[in-house]
What we know:
Blueprint: E1 15-20, H1 31-36, H2 38-50, E2 54-61, H3 66-75, H4 79-96, E3 103-106, H5 110-125, E4 129-139, E5 144-145, E6 151-154, E7 165-166, E8 183-187, E9 195-204, H6 206-223, H7 228-239, E10 245-246, E11 248-249, E12 266-267, H8 269-272, H9 275-284, H10 289-292, E13 298-305, H11 309-323, E14 330-336, E15 339-341, E16 344-345, H12 356-361, H13 366-375, E17 383-385, H14 387-414, H15 435-456, H16 460-481, H17 483-489, H18 491-512, H19 517-526, H20 531-534, H21 543-547, H22 572-581, H23 586-606
Helix pairs in contact: 3-4, 5-9, 5-11, 6-11, 7-11, 14-16, 14-18, 15-16, 15-18, 16-18, 17-18, 18-19
The chain binds methionine.
Amino acid sequence: MASPPPKLPIPGRRNILITSALPYVNNVPHLGNIIGCVLSADVFARYCRLRGYNAIYICGTDEYGTATETKALEEKCSPKEICDKYHVIHDEVYKWFDIKFDKFGRTSAPEQTEVCQAIFHKLMENKWLTENTMQQLYCDTCERFLADRLVEGKCPTEGCNYEAARGDQCENCSKLLNPTELIDPKCKVCKNAPRIRDTDHLFLELPLLSDKLVNYINNTSVAGMWSQNAIQATNAWLKEGLKQRCITRDLKWGVPVPHEKYKDKVFYVWFDAPIGYISITASYTPDWEKWWKDPDNVELFQFMGKDNVPFHTVMFPSTLLGTGENWTMMKTISVTEYLNYEAGKFSKSHGIGVFGNDAKVTNIPSEVWRYYLLMNRPEVSDTLFTWADLQAKLNSELLNNLGNFINRVLSFVAKPAGAGYDSIIPDAPNAESHTLTNALAEKTNKWVEQYLEAMEKVKLKQGLKSAMAISSDGNAYLQESQFWRLYKEDPAACAVVMKTSVGVVYLLACLLEPFMPSFSREVLRQLNMSPDEDLSFCDDKGETAKAKRPWDFVSAGHKIGKPVPLFKELKDEEVEAFRIKFAGSQAERISKAQADAEAKKVAEKLK
Ligand code: MET
């Protein structure tokens, strides 16, 4: 299918540019990474599209830097091969999670070099860059300066003296280190001892940009309703005093520095990574400047985990401000804390937890994962993933509340005449004079208002809870109405209850679409409606939702499709099996699987 033409800002509309932190390409993302950025931004982007805002969602893999070079060494291939391999893995994981990017690009694309170098030239021209000499370890055998993580040696900390401390940090005592501090340092590649050598680097003069920056932060953090954790992390950086930041590195895998003296160096990955948002937009449309250089007509919303905050509130804005050009700067930042796994932490480097590709093999549908992760979104403090909690949320909230409500309504409508409505929505004049129905309409409206308010403020969890409350009220309404009795005793009232309930089913499909798109598609299919044409419950001012009452959403005479149960119960024994299967690290699990396979082969032979 040909991809639709790229969207551009439209005068007079709300034009919203949404980004999520660009995941490092050297690993498979775990559930914590997924909720931390791509999934949260996806929910917001889907919400914006549903509201009729002109929104695009830009993301991609962050490919340069030491992390990639180190992984390439580990896997004995080139950095480019690592990127090609893991970009595809990320892309597949996100597709499985139903993440709908307008563009999922890569920072190793040619546009990145172009935009990054253009920004560098401006900073140079405006004299925000200075030169300084640093001492770094140089390996004569490999003929290069060694990145921090490419040096190993004895930890200098008293009482620790761990033999294999890394140049940036000792894994044993956690102390942050300088590679030159290591005792008896060794190059990780050739194991020879490196020597200290002087090398010049370029630095961004944050202290000189600080007035402009503080002014931007003060204004935007209020106007853009920055979350408390974003403000805290930013202030912590400001409080320490802004320092010059080195933007160059002695590496090969990166954007080359377009300067005669520094032509053998590349930009530091945290200098070029946020520029990736711009360059990926440039690979989406040649008119990218319409999004990125129109601060009056474009709102930039950025999603990320808390460790990325200062790079987005201090470093990236300073880079843009330093160019002296009229950039679209971030308005709203949405930051998540950490999602922990059972008793410990998710860890990419140790392979602990459930990874994007693991979720798929559980056979638990992606909409259930999305629901669980969003209900558990670490918005203000860390949250915990547990299998028991996933089971509880699936069985009691999705199955017993939401799925049960929808299935009860649609199955009743689908029953043949004499027991139901032969799948045809009955007419229900004077619905507003039915007291119970009127009360439900009022409650529903209140929830819709709360939903809209929460979503506008990017309080996604609150938005989801408000939508789910509509389903709980729907269940209570069905129960109180005793529609199964009314069918014979008061057919007009029964028609009101059923038409209203079908309207609520439709409303739920709309409100929950940002959270569980595959669920919504299925509900619309059961309603015999089309996700492309029928999925809109209000205009971009939120008017229709307020003006329409639930019984108005689906017209009398409409024929619904075939209802089928929406969710499947997760049993205790399945949960226990998952807990065991996903215990330990991914590497241990892989070697266990290999050992099992070997054992099986031997058993086969012995047969
Ligand atoms: N690659 C970084 C991370 O995964 C984010 C970069 S956002 C420009 O933490």
